[in-house]
Design goal:
mainly alpha, 229 residues, flat
């Protein structure tokens, strides 16, 4: 085990760095999609509601591995045959798109639930002061909702981080992909997978501690605000 760590430790740490980077990009763009479709699901517009519902149900209903193959192989094939556009995606680009689409569907539900957790009177009060619907949403409702959503967003990042392992199937050099390469050279699958499991465990436990600390901090802040009033 020690020899494997000394020989391949840096390689696996670099792969974990790529994994975290991919998860961060996926979460970033997933948050953007989540905001768009989350807001679309709560506005008083049936067309927007239906579009948001279709997106969420469609993406959540497709396994990640199928989505990865579709983005990496299917989309370039479709663009070429339907529109004559020759293009290919790098494993990084396809991975970010795949994670963003998947994360965005779950983030949309988190944001919808966060907005709906805010007392409707907040929106009514803001509108009565002369603010437009969208100004009221972004200046009054959404800032309050985000406080409630932070723990769920951190948990979604943990899920997205674990989902990156699926992208080894399209050749992105994340941790699982590099571990498979090391196993092919050393034939020591038990030791390699044990090291990979520990690496994931350390990172995920750290993120869970962050989520728990944020949740406790937000709870204390809410309690202090109630005491003031």
């Amino acid at each position: 085990m020690g020899q494997i760590i000394s020989t391949y430790g840096n390689l696996l740490l670099e792969a974990m760095g790529y994994t975290l980077l991919l998860a961060l990009w996926g979460l970033l763009f997933g948050c953007i999609l989540g905001i768009i479709f989350g807001l679309s699901s709560v506005v008083n517009n049936k067309v927007s509601n239906i579009i948001a519902k279709i997106y969420v149900n469609l993406i959540r209903g497709v396994p990640m591995i199928v989505l990865a193959f579709f983005v990496y192989f299917g989309v370039p094939y479709g663009l070429k045959n339907l529109f004559g556009i020759s293009t290919t995606f790098s494993a990084l680009t396809a991975g970010i798109i795949c994670l963003a689409l998947n994360c965005g569907a779950y983030m949309a539900e988190i944001i919808r639930a966060g907005i709906q957790s805010i007392d409707p009177g907040q929106m009514e009060a803001a509108r009565s002061l002369g603010l437009s619907y969208w100004r009221s949403m972004f200046r009054v409702v959404l800032p309050q909702a985000i406080k409630n959503m932070i723990p769920s967003i951190v948990n979604q990042f943990i899920i997205t981080l674990k989902d990156t392992s699926i992208l080894s199937v399209i050749g992105f050099p994340e941790l699982v992909n590099k571990a498979q390469n090391v196993i092919a050279q050393t034939f020591k699958s038990f030791q390699i997978w044990a090291i990979v499991a520990v690496m994931y465990l350390v990172v995920i436990l750290a993120l869970q501690q962050i989520a728990n600390a944020l949740e406790r901090s937000l709870k204390r802040g809410s309690e202090r605000n109630r005491d003031k009033h």
